[in-house]
Specification:
This protein is an alpha+beta fold and about 60 residues long. Helices cover about 30% and strands about 10% of the residues. It has one helix at about 45-65; strands spanning about 35, 45. Strands 1-2 form a two-stranded antiparallel sheet.
């Protein structure tokens, strides 16, 4: 740990772009699709949704260690 920071590695196969950051449902997405739209009603930019999923997975893994 350096300067109060810790690196948490997320599995490279973690489905960050296919997972709804609101309800957790997964759906396939093609690379050209730029907006994530879930059946729960959540709509967000694909990259923003993915970033939230990566943050949440990192926090989950950090809590386990």
């Amino acid at each position: 740990m350096e300067q109060g920071k810790q690196l948490v590695k997320i599995d490279k196969w973690f489905p960050s772009t296919k997972k709804c950051s609101c309800c957790g449902a997964e759906k396939p997405m093609k690379l050209f699709e730029r907006t994530y739209e879930c059946s729960c009603g959540y709509v967000a930019d694909r990259d923003y949704n993915s970033a939230i999923n990566i943050k949440n997975e990192g926090l989950r893994l950090l809590a386990l260690s």
